[in-house]
Amino acid sequence: MIKLSCCIPGGSLMPEGIGGVPVSPAKQIVSNCRYLLDLGYDCTECAGGMLAELSPEEVSYLCEENEKSSLKLRAVNSMFPTDYRLADPDAPQTEYLARAEKLFSVMEKLGIRYPIFGSGAARAIPEGREEEGRKTLYGFIDKIADMAKAHGLTLLIEPIRSSESNIFRTVDEAGEYVRNLGRPDVLLLCDAFHMAVEKTDPNVVSKYVDIIRHCHVSDAPKRTSPGKEGGEPEDPDYIPRFAAALLREGYDGAVSIECGFDDFRKEAKESLAYLREVFSYVKTVEFTPIRDLIEEPVYIKLNTRAIDPKTTSAAASGKVFPASPYKEGLLAVLTAKKGETLTLTLGTEAVGFAPSVKERADEKKLEVNIGGCHFSDYVYGESTNKPYFGQVKDDKGNAFTRLDLTVKEHPHQRSVFIAVGDVNGVDCWNEFGNFGYVRNEKVDEIVSKSAYASFRVRNRWTDGAGNPLITETSRYTVYNQSEACRALDIDVTFTADYGEVRFGPTKEAGPLGIRVCDALREDIGCGRMTNSWGAVGEGECWSRPAEWCDYYGAPEGVGPMGITVFDWRKNERFPTAWHIRSYGLFAANNLYFKGGFTIPAGESINYRFRILFRRREMTKDEISDRFVLYTLGEV
Questions:
Q1: Residue 471 neighbours by CB under 8 Å, 6+ apart
Q2: Number of folded domains in the chain?
Q3: Contact status, residue 528 vs residue 563, Cβ threshold 8 Å
Q4: pLDDT one-digit tens code per residue, 294-324
Q5: Which range of residues forms the domain containing residue 470?
Q6: What is the per-residue pLDDT across 602-622, written as a single tens digit (0 to 9) for each?
């Protein structure tokens, strides 16, 4: 849980709101910390300038008062004066280290955990001596980190805007330094003021939340108190977006106001109310559908608010729907009429057909279940030449797709797969002649939530000798839906990590391929092909561009079942042409019908598709509505 804190005025070395050390700093610390705690702050903070010069008697007084009633001091900022030259090889570092040692000793006695290494001007690298300066500064950090550790403290590196410092100016720069340092006693602080000035996306905290231990907030550009009455921040939504990013990532450290105050007591009170609002989870969300919804996954983006990670449901109009935190908002599986405004009250009920993904590492597969029933597996072992998703089944075990590893007719067409027949001249579709392999390198980001479940794979495509051709990174997602209609979303990114890649104009290409079960085939089964333009059968659908294509039938003893595939509006040369055949192949293929293309070295291309596996008939209008919801949405 996030703790709210405030830095008391005095002893600050920041350019704005410079506060000299009070005549009686110890009494000021006690008085102001207790005022903040009485207001309801969880903890407090002060500047190093207030502690570093205390007499032994003042330190004893502070310790006595802290023992009577904890001042809950958590962190100390402004460790070093601006005239110190911490990165100068010729500077008197012994003096600087002595100041740090005294400060850390006082902090240990008071139970203050985090010294903050901001001190932008003091840590600046001398002009013309960059290499020496960095080496000196890094060495100095190691020394004070060792000293801090000896006192039971954890040093925090603070990124500071470029106008104040020429090193550790961004969260990424400081975060990567801390990550590479690999010391559990040297971690990271994030300051919303500096981030806002540097135009940093607040979602960057997601990369470093595991090493962030403290945060600062104030309004840019004047470093005023957050939520100040009459204040005019440059970006009024920055702190709310920063708060939402921290909440989404489950950050459980402190967020402390560090600013220049005009009226400390008045503004501290106002800011606490403001921070309590922005650092809290949203309770209700409104949504108005643009089409009729029937168990439709919907993403509701909330830039400035966050969803409680424990959320599993959303209730509206007497109905309860599956819901989960997702990206920068909420993903809910909704049923509603077009134009019907839903006020969704978020809760923790178990509802619907919760999906799950379980890794079976010993079997080299990921098991996907929906509502406790087996839906499919993603198989990535080297027993086959490329991974595949399949066989896809309904709750009763009826198969939508074919999976027969001994079949002789097009044996490489396995259920649902990603493949291209000409990758720099290598066939990564068929499995004869000059064919290549797709080998899994990594499985990660396995998520099983109330509304959805997903996983990500990283695969390396090679030629027959194992030489790498391209990297494929794919995410597979399923939703909390009944077997009447279930969606599988596939998000595929090809990256030319090994040099320029040419996808040739071959018929044996997708990148998405599906092989329908024999009962749905048009030639020997009961299936019928249609597309978004109203075409019917292989003769009208094969090779034709269309936003979606459908393969539907009602096998004897099974009943209605169909597979529908949506192309995404941002896919390469949308809408795709379809390589859809009466013998059961169902593939999205621009390469054969629209020509090949090149991915320059180091660049990527992304494809997204949604596949509906349904156990009921759908009208063309309903399929079109679902397509619009998919292609205009952000799920």
A1: 458, 459, 460, 461, 494, 495, 497, 498
A2: 3
A3: no
A4: 999 999 999 899 999 999 999 998 999 999 9
A5: 355-516+569-612
A6: 999 999 999 999 999 999 999
